[in-house]
Design a protein that fits this description.
Blueprint: E1 2-12, H1 15-44, H2 52-64, H3 76-93, E2 114-117, E3 122-124, E4 127-130, E5 134-138, E6 147-156, E7 159-169, E8 180-185, E9 191-193, E10 198-199, H4 205-219, H5 226-260, E11 263-267, H6 271-274, H7 289-302, H8 304-318, E12 321-325, E13 350-352, E14 359-361, H9 362-380, H10 390-404
Parallel strand pairs: 8-11, 11-12
Antiparallel strand pairs: 1-5, 1-7, 2-6, 3-4, 4-5, 6-7, 8-9, 9-10, 13-14
Helix pairs in contact: 1-3, 2-3, 4-5, 5-8
Length: about 400
């Protein structure tokens, strides 16, 4: 089995290299926005989209002009990769199989500044050679395994990082465990397992309150003044810290779950729909807007989508599966007598069946019902392929091939 994974390290930069990298990232951003504007114009006028070959011809034309001649300062392959990424983004936008398809958006300065080298780089020990930049040291926190295929240089806050994507050939993995676990994602708890164990939500309240105070001070500053920029940088550093905390916790928890259970059953939650604003419009005003806004913020802060993604690829690498089931009424159905009623759950935490009197924590009930639905799907052979993760789909197809033959 061939897999691709990335190793991310922080670069040790100086003023000269930072200026070069900022320039290259800015040129890639400019080219993205310029090419995107062309395609949006074509869409508005119902004309065919421009793909990589046409956009590459335009970029070479722009390089020769006086107005956009600064593009020649960037390595050509970084600009070509930008156009490739834009083409892929448009293809995904019109791909019916993509659940979150949307038209590519314009990029702003400081927002995910990056550029990619598909070739011409070299890695020796704790340093890396980048075309037109030279050798740069990086903080090598772990060894690189596999064949490097490309590198992406990106900026987060005031630091620059390099992501080295490698290709690794692995034997078909066999998961060491044979257990199956249902996982119920929640608000008061990050998640609850069907065996009763649970994890507390990610606590970032201290940093969020600090950001609120700084944003109030920022609103009183003159925009783009030196004091405004200093305060803006502080706020950005806090946002980066929150993202790093969330990333670290979710990685550790998903790794523990993936190593412990061969099959993990999750609800197929439509997070994008769940976190829609309740404001409504001018004619139809929303209800409980403040409460819904708070709920949306909590859901997004916990990183449910990120947690699901981590579990999927870690299970794929370890030989396990992730199965998704219908989330309807999981917290209102009694796991003992299967009686379903909204009266079974009177509060956030308490579940008491009105028919048989079974009492249990509501999140544990939800996790048990999720696990039971996973067992039922597997036992009855009613698996909806769209609800299986990539790992599950691959393993299921391998199991079915001998039977078909």
């Amino acid at each position: 089995m061939m897999i691709r994974k990335a190793y991310k390290y922080r670069l040790t930069t100086n003023t000269e290299t930072e200026q070069l990298m900022s320039q290259y990232a800015g040129n890639c951003r400019f080219l993205w926005n310029k090419a995107l504007a062309l395609n949006l114009h074509h869409l508005e006028n119902k004309q065919p989209l421009l793909w990589y070959q046409e956009l590459d011809w335009f970029s070479k034309l722009w390089k020769k002009s006086k107005e956009y001649g600064f593009l020649k300062l960037s390595p050509a392959q970084t600009l070509q990769q930008t156009l490739n990424q834009l083409e892929r983004a448009f293809k995904d936008a019109f791909d019916k199989k993509q659940p979150l398809k949307k038209i590519p958006a314009f990029k702003k300065r400081g927002d995910r500044d990056s550029f990619t080298f598909p070739q011409g780089f070299n890695i020796e020990g704790k340093r890396i050679f980048l075309p037109k930049i030279g050798w740069i040291n990086f903080r090598k926190s772990r060894e690189i395994e596999g064949i490097p295929k490309n590198v992406t240089v990106s900026r987060q806050g005031k630091h620059w990082f390099v992501s080295i994507q490698v290709e690794i050939e692995l034997t078909e993995p066999v998961h060491p465990s044979t257990s199956m676990m249902g996982v119920d994602m929640g608000v008061k708890r990050l998640f609850t397992l069907s065996d009763g164990q649970f994890e507390e939500p990610i606590d970032i309240g201290f940093y969020q309150e600090k950001i609120k105070r700084l944003q109030k001070r920022l609103a009183k500053k003159i925009k783009f003044s030196n004091n405004w920029r200093k305060l803006k940088e502080k706020i950005n550093r806090l946002h980066t810290k929150i993202a790093n905390i969330r990333h670290d916790i979710l990685h550790k928890l998903s790794t523990t779950l993936s190593k412990s259970h061969a099959m993990i059953v999750l609800e197929k939650l439509q997070i994008r729909n769940m976190t829609k604003s309740a404001k409504g419009d001018r004619d139809n005003h929303g209800k409980m807007v403040k409460q819904k806004s708070g709920l949306n913020r909590v859901i997004l802060d916990q990183g449910w989508g990120m947690f699901k993604t981590f579990l999927e690829y870690k299970q794929l690498w370890s030989g396990g599966q992730v199965l998704f089931v219908d989330p309807k009424y999981t917290s209102q159905t009694c796991p003992v007598c299967q009686h379903r009623s909204k009266d079974n759950r009177q509060t956030q935490a308490e579940f008491e069946c009105v028919l048989c009197g079974h009492k249990e924590h509501a999140d544990v009930v939800g996790a048990r019902n999720i696990l039971e639905r996973g067992h039922r799907l597997l036992a009855c052979g009613e698996i909806d392929i769209s609800l299986l993760s990539e790992a599950g789909t691959r393993q299921l197809s391998n199991e079915l091939e001998p039977a078909v033959a």
